[in-house]
């Protein structure tokens, strides 16, 4: 915990699905205003952990705490009102509605009047530099714009924490760079604590102050980017997996740093 305790924390959390241990005694903290990374091969348990932290998945054993208060068992929509927001691997936008309405609906769901929600939606789209998309039907958006709108929706009413589930998936290098700028501003300008789950290891090493590495439901490494670059345990976890391109990427990063 930081001295102020301004963190979203999973403490000793375990989750089981029909005998499969998806998470085993996992402890992870997301401090306000910082970017924390969560990496690990496919099936490591990353999404399950996001689900636990955002109320989409009940905690098996262990606790989840929001700035010192236990929040295990609180439903996802209530946690969102308490300031814990997320994005999904799939955008999950209302595909038949314009972009502006997608954000407005969230504002209304969070207790704003329609008028305030529309004003807030316009403010968020402008802040993200995507106000020209306001009238576009969400289902017609190119994939990367859909991702940006999903982030816009998640930062409606400025949450305290934002958990991003593979926001750069399918993005070009240039698009990932633009995304990196946005994520830095979300933490730096808005003071939001960001948890970034990504298979784009370069992005995680560039953005995150602290990185947690999950493998088969267990945290196998925690540290600053340099520690992760040089970790044999991390390299080993990715070897022989579908993401084994991470292994040479880590070696290059370690050589360059
Ligand atoms: N609802 C569920 N029911 C049963 N098993 C599940 C469920 N959700 C996840 N699992 C299993 O739990 C393990 C962890 O899955 P999870 O999706 O959290 O991993 P992940 O690290 O997010 O993977 P990816 O990188 O592929 O998204 C996997 O073995 C997965 O098959």
Automatic annotation (TrEMBL):
Gene Ontology molecular-function annotations: ATP binding; ATP hydrolysis activity
Domain ABC transporter: 8-241
Superkingdom of the source species: Bacteria
Pfam families given in the database record: ABC_tran (PF00005)
GO cellular component terms listed in the entry, alphabetical order: plasma membrane
Stretch forming the signal peptide: none
Function per UniProt: Involved in beta-(1-->2)glucan export. Transmembrane domains (TMD) form a pore in the inner membrane and the ATP-binding domain (NBD) is responsible for energy generation.
Protein name: ABC transporter ATP-binding protein
